[in-house]
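This follows on from our talk about sequence and fold. I would like you to pick a protein and set down its sequence and fold. Go ahead and set the record down below:
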Amino acid sequence: DPVNGLAAPDGQIYITRGFLDRFNNGEVSAAEMSSVIAHELGHVALGHTKRRMIDFSGQNAVRTVLTVTLNRFIPFIGPWIANMAVNMVAAGMSRKDEFEADSYATALMIKAGLGVAPQKSLFTKLNKLTANSGSAPAWFLSHPKTIDRIKAIEANEIRWTGFIS
C-alpha cells in the first residue's frame, strides 16, 4: 500500500492505509504522523489544493495546444515533447507547494512543542520506504529531494528559534 497523505480541495485530509499500517506497527511515531497532518493542513491553509484544480485545467489546455502545434511540425514526437514540457512545469509548481507546506508544518510543529525532529526523521523514513534513490532529474520530480526539504526545515528552524535541534 502507498505511504502518503493528501489534502482534498474541500479541505479534508486523508492518510493512506499504508501510512496508517506503518503507524499502527510502530514504524511511524505519533509525532511523525502529526508532521504529516501539519503538512497537509499547510496545503489546505495555503490554498494549494484548490489552486491545483485550476492549474490542472490550464495545463490540459496548454498540453492540447502544444500537442496539436508541435505535431504539425514534428510528427510523432511533438506530442511527447508537449507532454514532457507541461509535466516539467507542473512538477516545478508542485515542488514549490511542497516546500511551502513543509514550512507551514515546521511552524505548527514548533508551536506545538514537538520541534522539527519528527518532520526530518519522517522524510528520511519516507525516502527509504519509497526507494527514492534520487536517480530522476529534479525537474521531473513532483516533490523536492529529501535532503533539500530537510535543509529548508533547518533554515526555518534557525530563523524561528535561533538553533537547530
